Amino acid sequence: MMNSLPLAAAALLLASVAAQAQTMQVSPNGARASIAGSAETFTGTVTVTPLFTASEHSNAGGGLVEFTPGARSHWHTHPAGQTLIVTAGTGWVQEVGGEKVAIRPGDVVWTPPGVKHWHGATAESSMSHIAITPVHDGSAVTWLEPVTDEQYR
Amino acid sequence: MMNSLPLAAAALLLASVAAQAQTMQVSPNGARASIAGSAETFTGTVTVTPLFTASEHSNAGGGLVEFTPGARSHWHTHPAGQTLIVTAGTGWVQEVGGEKVAIRPGDVVWTPPGVKHWHGATAESSMSHIAITPVHDGSAVTWLEPVTDEQYR
């Protein structure tokens, strides 16, 4: 079972405290509880595992996002942009007004600030990526409407 | 064959230009030439593949670093720290004065600014990690002396 949001928030807080220690910190796989992507921001089954948080040293936080086939984010923008590193499977990204673009492991996607877009798995394949998202004025993302089945297919 | 450093520098420049475009940019796996880790900063066979560069939006750049068994970085420090996300194999990290710590896929390592340390594969296993390194005053790393075989074993 995945942890509820309060536990996830506690894990993020602990990660943040660890990041401020003055010795090397190894955060083992399994120590950062995965979170089910909310139906308010994703379609289908999406799992988010926190990796690291923004800090006084770097303005970007990172997480692993895993999409099952057919799952995708809602349309959204990032105030300071976002970098994706695809780690598994095959997915799609699409900018508003553009075509869907297939992404595969090792591909790196840069979405500039304010560009409306979505990302997710293809209809037939799962897809995982690491997302590295700079925080601007306390915000990393502005969520918009769902990607309809017509837009997705 | 890996490309020489001038070509790698050109690839980084192109990646930087792409990062400033106002549309989504997919940099496919294979488009960013891998670089052999220099004997001045690594022991053994190490391959570095650039992923993204620091920009006006985020102060950290990222790369994939692959170590063959026995390969490791020299001792070094990072002026603004570094985050490692282990992606394959089994490796070791060590802070000066501390013990070697084993790292495995999904583990996340934070090294604070100025902490002298090294990272690499174990003697028997390869190890790969993504390194995310904030740039401070134009510098991401200060290289020091090699890790001797006695220190490594």
Tell me the helix content of chain A: 10-25%
CATH superfamily of chain A: Jelly Rolls
Strand content of chain A: 35-45%
How would you write the strand order of the largest sheet of chain A?
Answer: 2-4-5-13-8-11
Model description:
- The structure is a homodimer of 153-residue chains.
- With 153 residues, chain A is mainly beta.
- Chain A has a single domain (5-152), classed as Jelly Rolls.
- Chain A contains two helices and 14 strands; from the N terminus they run αββββββββββββββα.
- Strand 11 (108-111) of chain A pairs antiparallel with strand 1 of chain B.
Task: Briefly summarize what is shown.
Chain A is mainly β. Chain A has two helices and 14 strands; from the N terminus they run αββββββββββββββα. At the A-B interface, strand 1, strand 8, strand 11 and strand 13 of A face strand 1, strand 8, strand 11 and strand 13 of B.
Essential attributes:
homodimer, 153 residues, mainly beta, Jelly Rolls, 3-stranded antiparallel sheet, 14 strands, globular, disordered N terminus
